[in-house]
């Protein structure tokens, strides 16, 4: 299985505040397809302006802390953007400069994200870049990217990142195991909605009782939705979910269904049944067929969606090798977007990855385990994988997890991650393989194998943490429904609640993660571990916890 990792080894220190970003080669999954885009072909460049995140970070941690008097007192989108607003001078200077290359649009209420619709010829002139055309070796999807770019000196002090440039998007692709409606193994061991609901104490609970409790899945690069496949899934697997409202958002929603996309849109509303569910699809091309960067487009769209309309839970299966691919300017600026979501009461869940402790290529460069981004961000909830289909669960060997090389362990998890890293049992990997003081991930886990998914009218069994993520996300959608129906706030950033109440999750103590060569990855242990986090959700126990909160 290929998760969304982009293998390339760059120095974070060298790129921490550099005006130039460059790479030596494209990721293994992307092959040069010859030539370059036509100079007159359109492209939408997204510019993320720098901002001081000191105040928003303090507010984010305070309002998501269940022990704080301010817990759950979320801010409006307008209030959030007032905390992160760049100076008027910065916006004016960047806008004026970009206007000489094309049409400029503000994508957020405070103009901290700007886009310019231009041509590739002008983009190359502006960014001192040379775009080439690349084709994904598995899907055939084509994109245009540059091996380097430089932020123009005229706006350098105001801009943190620009895309699409050197980053090669690659969403998770759920691993197809079987494709047969008649396969007996699917009947004897299947993580169907009924099995998952029983396993995680959801049972017959349905949502849809509270207003404005939308939940959403994301899809990138040609992963489409099929109404007929979803209807067949409801008929075969979970008729009780058939009345769940579905809404399509984004520039790429309908077409030939993808395994990943249908997995997400079938299992989030199967677990969070009757909660209005949205499919946010982004292709990497705008409605005018201009190229863009889908992950950045998703973030800017969330930032520009009103409080009445924005989903309160997002499930996303997307990731990259952390230290290889994520310059700190980029990570810091994207983290600001994550915090903006949390302060609005939005929960962001990301699949942790499917390569165990290694990179997507199964290697450990420099004899070091490879952390994942954004799963390793301290501002999202990372979801790992388990297996077995019944209690007690075991860690799934493909579940990515470990310790960030960029971000320190936040206060809300530092004690448990330090205790795990200090474990001297024989099955623990040598400490030289990981950063023992880094942010530990995943935070939670759920079943990651044997999910029956309907694609093109056929039931296919799939695996990956991209199964676990929508499963868990739907459960938190139900918890939001209960709180909102009782006149309480949504849950927002989940991690401080979870780490304060570990007994509300099903601890996983068996199994070991895949590693590199003869070196095994991290083992599951009592308490938090670097393959299943705190364990899997127990809806009934979590409901008691969240309903006791203000």
UniProtKB/TrEMBL annotation:
Active-site residues, as the UniProt record annotates them: 260 (charge relay system), 264 (charge relay system), 466 (charge relay system)
Signal peptide region: 1-18
Protein name, entry field: subtilisin
Enzyme Commission number(s) from the entry: 3.4.21.62
Zinc in keyword set: no
Cofactor note as given: Binds 1 Ca(2+) ion per subunit.
Annotated GO biological process: proteolysis
Gene3D superfamilies: Peptidase S8/S53 domain
Co-factor requirement: Ca(2+)
Keywords assigned by UniProt, alphabetized: Calcium, Hydrolase, Metal-binding, Protease, Serine protease, Signal, Zymogen
Originating organism: Triparma verrucosa
Disordered: annotated segments: 167-190
Domain Peptidase S53: 190-549
Keyword Protease attached: yes
Molecular function per GO: metal ion binding; serine-type endopeptidase activity; tripeptidyl-peptidase activity
Reactions catalysed according to its record: Hydrolysis of proteins with broad specificity for peptide bonds, and a preference for a large uncharged residue in P1. Hydrolyzes peptide amides
Top-level division of the source organism's lineage: Eukaryota
Residues annotated to bind Ca(2+): 507-508, 527, 529
